[in-house]
């Protein structure tokens, strides 16, 4: 399977960002507290700012997170503060984030034939985090050229940095007279949310070349729609960008390639509904986790089923929900990843049989297990590591529940395939595992279709 996958070429867009990681140390924190003053900080914690506009907002939310030990993410809305962060903290590591970024680097690590990655913004600091082999499409003298992405950066492009402050249980510091001891290890994430980076689109000069890009690849993996806004200061809105996004998909599909959308959570119900109803019917394949099934059902009007999935987490509800989503939005294949199992739902007429679909899911979980074991996949041989990871201890239970669901639900019009996951007990990293599963399953799905 791996060899067949490696013969494929793929395009991925739109979201990539810099993840800058800081291992928080007590001295840095104490310095920050001393420079802002404990009383000022306490007052700001009381106000509980929902977004970060100035340094004191950050310090207040950080200390609040440290006190409770709960992981939290707060958006940074003031672009000017990049400088303050970069001057105040030394980053222990910078790595790529964002689904398209993670997927591009994963495919380059597997050395698939050709990897083309596109993000509307490509500042140098981001371009440098892509792996060798990733190509970026540019237009030169009226022609499409694929350049090594590291060389294709544009000075002055807006930068999306998510700053991840990791903290350890037991760290102690003083807020005035109060001594605080961090109760749990965790992370505090400051995510960039500026208007400049929320225009998720293909730039005008490249758009006419999307059919040509489509002809050069076997599949496209699209993601990042969660970064859209309902309104922009120039009067544009989500509807405008979603119309453009639909044109992109149709242009890529002129070459009759498969398109996969990797869905990520969208807080705003209106935006979630717009993305789902505009985009899903145009693509072939959609990937998501089980919580997303419930969130999508809830905006499609299936509140009771959504609540049931949230409360009980039962396989049969996930299957029923998946069948509804597949039918209402009418695409070719839905892939769902959960901690204990992966699932495909297709209509009955899918060209692949159940065994082939199961093979594709197994390829996905094996790839994810390799990545969880090693932290990253830097060469194709590393896939083998995943083959040594056992299927999780609830595999039999999963199979039993699946058989039960088959008896209860009317599934004759569908093919539903469930495969237990390979789970690494002490993963080096869990970043991007969902994206890894979806890349592995989608590419192997295409490879299997080729056999027919
Ligand atoms: P996400 O959190 O959406 O990136 O995806 C998490 C997915 O990765 C889960 O649905 C699991 O199938 C898989 N996963 C999570 N933890 C592990 C692990 N320790 N080893 C292997 N796979 C994992």
What's the structural blueprint in terms of helices and strands?
Blueprint: H1 2-6, E1 9-13, E2 17-23, H2 26-36, H3 38-47, H4 55-68, E3 72-76, H5 81-88, E4 93-97, H6 99-109, E5 114-118, H7 124-127, E6 134-140, E7 143-148, E8 161-167, E9 172-175, E10 178-181, E11 186-192, H8 210-216, E12 219-222, H9 238-252, E13 258-262, H10 269-279, E14 285-289, H11 290-299, H12 303-312, H13 315-329, E15 333-337, E16 341-347, H14 354-374, H15 383-387, H16 395-408, E17 414-420, H17 433-451
Parallel strand pairs: 1-5, 1-12, 2-8, 3-11, 5-6, 12-13, 13-14, 14-15
Antiparallel strand pairs: 2-4, 6-7, 8-11, 9-10, 15-16, 16-17
Helix pairs in contact: 3-4, 9-10, 11-12, 11-13, 14-17
The structure holds adenosine monophosphate.
Residues 289, 337-339, 368-369, 372, 421, 423-424, 427, 430, 433-434, 437 line the site of adenosine monophosphate.
Notes on the protein architecture:
With 452 residues, the protein is α/β, with parallel strands linked by helices. The protein contains 17 helices and 17 strands. The protein has helices spanning 2-6, 26-36, 38-47, 55-68, 81-88, 99-109, 124-127, 210-216, 238-252, 269-279, 290-299, 303-312, 315-329, 354-374, 383-387, 395-408, 433-451, and strands spanning 9-13, 17-23, 72-76, 93-97, 114-118, 134-140, 143-148, 161-167, 172-175, 178-181, 186-192, 219-222, 258-262, 285-289, 333-337, 341-347, 414-420. A hairpin with a 3-residue loop joins strand 15 and strand 16. Helix 11 runs antiparallel to helix 12 (303-312) and helix 14 runs antiparallel to helix 17. The protein is globular. The two termini are 14 Å apart. The site of adenosine monophosphate has 15 residues, from helix 14 and helix 17.
